[in-house]
Amino acid sequence: MRTLPPAGQSLPCLSGRVLVPGSASGRVVASGTELSFWGGVDPASGLIIDQHHPLNGQSLVGAILVLPGGRGSCTGSAVMLELLMAGHGPAGLVLARPDEILTLGVIVARELFGVSIPVVVLDETGFAAAKAAGQIRLSDGQVWRDEGSIPGAEEATGSSAHTAGQITDGIDLSPTDEALLSGAHGEAAAVAMRIVLQMAALTGATRLIDVTRAHIDGCIYTGPGMLAFAERLQALGGKVAVPTTLNAISVDARRWRAQGIDAALGEPAARLGETYAALGARPTYTCAPYLADAIPAVGEQIAWAESNAVVYANSVLGARTMKYPDFLDACIALTGRAPDAGCHRDEGRRAVMEVVFPSFAGIDDSFFPLAGYLTGLIAGNRIPVVSGLAHYAPDRDALKAFGAAFATSSSAPMFHIAGVTPEAMGGSEADAVAKAAGGRPVTALGIVTEVVRNCWWDLNLAEGETVDLVSIGNPHASLEEIAVLAGLVAGRRKHADVAFVITCGRTIEAQAEGAGHLAALRAYGAEIVTDTCWCMVTEPIIPPKARVILTNSGKFAHYGPGLTGRAFRFAGLAACVEAACSGRAPREMPEWLSA
Of 233, 258, 340, 389, most Cβ neighbours within 10 A? Predict the structure, then answer.
């Protein structure tokens, strides 16, 4: 493959792998850092809003976006759809590796709504050249750097026509697959199967497999495109084929009016959840389905979306799911069939690197989200095995916090922790590392204390000590976390100028109510919000006058500045309670990290 010539020279070009065909041209917006579109790009404007990303503040509108790939949230596909339908998206996408999340957003826009952009993958040399260009043109996998036109090239047309042969090329269809594709199970299932097969081809799968259950993340309302997709499936007679649960939605479905949420958000957001429920999904409305009663078993083939749930299922439970993007989660739920690729297969679950943590004395609950966030930054799109953590004996909440933060900063679908997670157990720590890596040698990367301290400050960007809102429950708080909070606030009252809000699932709320925990928290002045989660929470639950938010979530500390426009601080539960009582959070690291 040849590199692009200097601007103004002739038209020799690069050829890459076509993920979505089409032609486009535009200025280059490029970075070597992966980007989560959810929490990283504003679908209403096309501006990059991730304050931790090098491209923060740049516009994608009409640009050729050159990125290694996406990372973080599964809802990036929904943001891509909203951008394209609103005319605020990029004109084309050039990647260094196939990216299921971003590509699926384009495929759904093309398949159902007739809007499309070209998506191309280049090898390492070609990607570096495209990233360095000022303006490029794409045409069905070919890439030029030139100010002139390409003979015969046209802008992306949005054609969604596919022949059966194109969709099924290289994939061995079962009789069930053929029946679904032919419409024998209804038009909605046929549409869903076409999308599943396109994504199977993208992942390199040669067959589909049965899944036992699904968890749909696409019930988050990012804009009219999300609702249009769900209502289209409903209008076509769609019904889920396997037991299916729903992720947190964008409002508290039972209380949004009383909370003062604008009907312009509340009505379509609630309707989106109701539409998926009409397709047969259970309205569980939680981003932590692993806290529920029906928990997948080790080795069980499932189809979960929501990045933290995917990582927890693969890593902690030992179940098997790819990091399914929004829309694909629903399509698999309607068909019960998924690509046999990625973490569904043994070889897609092996660690390819080791991350070694130093030992800290007297850690608190802020350690594990911080460690997960840092591990994700180091791992990128690689599956790591982490050593040096087993002696802390992390519980379910510690692993939940680690996984959610890891899934925010990484695009990998899982991690292993030597001596803790099910596929990294047995013998010495070295034995556990070897097991996680499938017996292959891996390079170990040791983390020094100063790197952990720098990561702490990266999540504590707010200046001063004043705190206006304490945010707990991203992912949703567990019963155990709520019990700890109830003990910490017993007999106390929060500062009048500080809001204290906890998000959790309905099941956990009922259990906490029955245990008496919520009475203690309400007496303290805390507010309990269900159904939604912090990455979707808006004003007035976030007080309009609030300028600084303190959270115990590494995930929300990352996404929050872009999503809310507020400055953020990060700390453990006890420090959050103390800050809510005084209205101030000292700008200092915890003792375990500063010692």
Answer: 233
Task: Output the six-digit token pair for 25.
Answer: 């041209």
DSSP 496-548: TT-EEEEEE-HHHHHHHHHTTHHHHHHHHT-EEEESB-TTT--TTTS-TT--E
Measured on CA atoms in the order 24, 411, 228, 184, is the torsion positive or negative? positive
Q: Cα(467)–Cα(546) distance, rounded to whole angstroms?
A: 8
- 3-class SS letters over 209-233: EECCCEEECCCCCCCHHHHHHHHHH
pLDDT digits over 151-200, tens only? 333 333 344 444 344 567 789 999 999 999 999 999 999 999 999 999 99
d(CA 593, CA 203) in angstroms, rounded, equals: 41
Cα angle, residue 289 at apex, residues 288 and 294 outer, rounded to 5°: 150
Question: Residue 502 belongs to what H/E stretch?
Answer: strand 499-504
Per-residue tokens: 244: 């299916």
- Alpha-helical (H) ranges within 133-223 are 164-168, 175-182, 187-203
Beta bridge partners of 282: 245
User: Are the CB atoms for 445 and 353 separated by under 8 Å?
Assistant: yes
Pick from 64-68, 152-156, 587-591: least confident: 152-156
Task: Give the dihedral of Cα atoms 586, 588, 591, 595; nearest 10 deg.
Answer: -150
Mean pLDDT of the region 8-17: 63
Bridge partners for 355 per DSSP: 386, 445
Residues 54 and 61: beta-carbon distance below 8 Å: no
CA 522 from chain centre, in angstroms, equals: 32
Token duo for residue 348? 């897609």
In the three-class reduction of DSSP (H, G, I as helix; E, B as strand; rest coil), residue 238 is classed as coil
Q: How confident is the model at residue 150, as a pLDDT?
A: 36
As a whole number of angstroms, the distance between CA 310 and CA 319 comes to 9
pLDDT given for residue 219 in this prediction? 96
Catalytic center residues: 73
Give helix then strand counts, H and E, for the chain: 20, 22
Contact between residue 66 and residue 97 where contact means Cβ atoms under 8 Å apart: no
Where does residue 235 rank: exposed (0-12), middle (13-18), buried (19+ CB within 10 A)? Answer: exposed
Cα 420 versus chain centre, distance = 24
Angle, CA 269 vertex, CA 265 and CA 270 arms, to 5°: 120
* 26 close to 64: Cβ distance less than 8 angstroms: yes
